[in-house]
Write a structure and sequence with these properties.
Blueprint lengths: L6 H5 L23 H14 L3 H9 L4 E6 L8 H14 L7 E6 L8 H21 L7 E4 L5 H10 L2 E4 L8 H9 L7 E5 L12 E3 L4 H13 L2 H4 L6 H9 L3 H5 L2
Parallel strand pairs: 1-2, 1-4, 2-3, 4-5, 5-6
Helix pairs in contact: 2-6, 3-6, 4-5, 4-8, 6-7
C-alpha cells in the first residue's frame, strides 16, 4: 500500500505533525491539543466564520445542518464507506431528508496511480447515485468537491458544521479531527464522529467512535449527533460521553430504539 502524505499538506494545518506526551500534572485539551494551539486555531476559526465565502456556504444551506468531511482523495480515507453510511442514514431516517447537507471536500491526489484514479471514480459515482436517489429540486444531499481550500476557509467551515466526519479505514494521527474540535464554538459546538482506527481516537475523548466498515454504526452516530441537545453537545450533561459510547456499542436493533 502506498503511504499517505501528512494531513498537514492537504489542509494547511497549524497543528504539529506530532504532539509531545503530557508531563506529570499537565492538563491536556480535548483531542490532544495544547491550550495555546487550541486557542490559536479557535481564534482563526472565529475570525474565519465571517469570511464571505464561508458565510455564503452556510447561507446556501438554507438553515440545514451541515456535516463536513475533509480528506485527500485517497482510498485509505474511507470516503466510499462514509458515503454508504450517509446513504444508510437517509434510508433509515426519512425525517432528516431535506434538513441536512453533507459537504465532502476531497482534493485530488496521485491520479496517475490506478488505485487512486479508481477511488476517484467510485466516490464520484456513489455521490451522484445518492444525490439522484434522495435529492430534490431544492436540496442536494451531498456536496462533493475536488479542490483544496485555505486553512482559514476550512477553519470557518469546521466551526459552523454540526458534525465532523473523520472515518479513515486505517490512519495515523489525523489532524483534521484535532482541527475540527479546536475550531468549535464553545457556546454551540459540533460533535466529531471519528473512526476508532484513527490515531487521533486515543486522544479525542469527546468524539463518537465508530467502526468505518459498519455503515449502520456510522449512520446511528450521524442521527445521534444531529439530534443531540445543546446541553449535551456542550458537555453539561453528567455522563453524556459514556452514554454516547454505550449507545454506539449496542446491537443495531437496540440502538434504533434509543
Amino acid at each position: 500500500m502506498i503511504s499517505a502524505r501528512p494531513v498537514t499538506e492537504e489542509v494547511g494545518a497549524i497543528l504539529p505533525a506530532s504532539l509531545p506526551a503530557p508531563s506529570a500534572g499537565r492538563s491536556r485539551m480535548p483531542c490532544g491539543c495544547s491550550t495555546s494551539t487550541r486557542a490559536a486555531f479557535a481564534s482563526l476559526a472565529h475570525r474565519s466564520e465571517r469570511l464571505p465565502f464561508v458565510q455564503h456556504v452556510f447561507q446556501s444551506s438554507a438553515g440545514r445542518a451541515l456535516i463536513i468531511g475533509v480528506d485527500r482523495l485517497d482510498y485509505s480515507k474511507g470516503i466510499v464507506h462514509r458515503l454508504s453510511a450517509f446513504e444508510r442514514f437517509l434510508q433509515t431516517q426519512p425525517d432528516w431528508r431535506g434538513k441536512v447537507t453533507y459537504l465532502q471536500i476531497a482534493p485530488k491526489s496521485r491520479t496517475e496511480v490506478p488505485e487512486y484514479a479508481d477511488s476517484e471514480q467510485e466516490i464520484g459515482a456513489a455521490a451522484g447515485r445518492i444525490n439522484g436517489a434522495y435529492g430534490e429540486a431544492d436540496w442536494t444531499p451531498i456536496r462533493y468537491v475536488n479542490r483544496a481550500y485555505s486553512r482559514a476557509t476550512l477553519a470557518g467551515l469546521y466551526r459552523g458544521a454540526r458534525a465532523g466526519l473523520v472515518t479513515p479505514l486505517l490512519d495515523g494521527m489525523n489532524l483534521v479531527a484535532k482541527e475540527y474540535v479546536c475550531a468549535q464554538n464553545p457556546d454551540d459546538p459540533g460533535v466529531l464522529i471519528l473512526s476508532r482506527f484513527a490515531g487521533a481516537a486515543r486522544e479525542c475523548k469527546a468524539a463518537l467512535l465508530v467502526n468505518p466498515y459498519d455503515p449502520d454504526s456510522v449512520a446511528v452516530a450521524i442521527r445521534q449527533v444531529l439530534s443531540m441537545p445543546l446541553t449535551e453537545r456542550c458537555g453539561n450533561v453528567p455522563g453524556a460521553l459514556g452514554q454516547r459510547h454505550s449507545i454506539l456499542g449496542r446491537p443495531l436493533s437496540q440502538r434504533a430504539a434509543t
